[in-house]
Amino acid sequence: MNTTPFGSGQVVAITGGARGIGRATGAAFLRAGARVALGDIDAELVEKTVGELVEATGGVVCGLPLDVTDRASFSSFLDATQERLGPLGALVNNAGIMPTGEFTQEDDDMTDRMVAINLSGVLYGSKLAANRMAGRRGHIVNVASLAGVSAFAGLATYCATKHAVVGFSEALHLELAATGIGVTAVLPGVVHTELSAGHSTPKWIRPIAEVEPEDVAAAIVSAVGSRKNTVAVPRALGAMIKVASGLPDSVRHRLSRTAHFDTAFTHVDAEARAAYHRRLDI
Predict the structure, then answer these.
(1) What is the spatial distance between Cα 215 and Cα 234, in angstroms, rounded to a whole number?
(2) Which of the residues 158, 168, 261, 276 is marked catalytic?
(3) Residue 166: helix, strand or coil by DSSP?
(4) What is the 3-state secondary structure (H, E, C) of 239-276?
(5) Considering Cα of 277, then 122, then 265, then 19, what sign does the dihedral take?
(6) Is 183 exposed, middle or buried (0-12, 13-18, 19+ CB in 10 A)?
(7) pLDDT band at 6 (very low <50, low <70, confident <90, very high)
(8) How far apart are the C-alpha atoms of 18 and 36, rounded to whole Å?
(9) Higher pLDDT among residues 76 and 4, named by residue
(10) Is residue 124 among the annotated active site residues?
(11) Rounded-to-integer distance, Cα 272 and Cα 254, Å
């Protein structure tokens, strides 16, 4: 049962809100009656997204510029959210990037950028939000990945950041448990967004592994106000990974090779990935 208290009039801030999971989550919260602030590094696109969501839902939503790697920018984003919409009720740390390729060939600047966006942004946002929520109920949702409880060749740094987010979320959940502030890590599988375009996950597993942004958004809305520390989307894939994690490493790796999971992000559609990588230069 969904126990979320974040209904009509509650304020939700979402990072990486211009597209993909962030956009879908904004729409889902608006339909639930929340007031939503979307933050994104692409200020022009987030404004366009806001216009489309207002037209589609009639809800109260604003778009704000946000660089999650800059603590001052994150603080300004949350301040502006509260000034426009009211006291912060929930923060969804969704912003993230996933370039693919061999770690030894990865540019150091890209390594640093992944750590800054995928991990440091979550740390900054969680601390800033928790301080603003002090003395009342609130919720922090950190969008990690099922790559945060498993491993895939071609995603070494990405996996590192998402493993860190999962561990951080569990620790913060314990720290804040008595304060009325909930913390949940949401772990999506392969989401149909530009971020995962061009992957070569085996066709037989795709019905289990792949989800739509709206599926992840629904899980995020449901998680807010709950006491759940982690939520896998889809649940079936999360359960499979959990079972596999209990196997000896040699067996798990052999199964991964047999099922061709080991090449899902190394043997990719180069053109699809190149388009995504070019966008990362924004």
Answers:
(1) 8
(2) 158
(3) helix
(4) HHHHHHHCCCHHHHHHHHHHCCHHHCCCCCCHHHHHHH
(5) negative
(6) buried
(7) low
(8) 12
(9) 76
(10) no
(11) 29
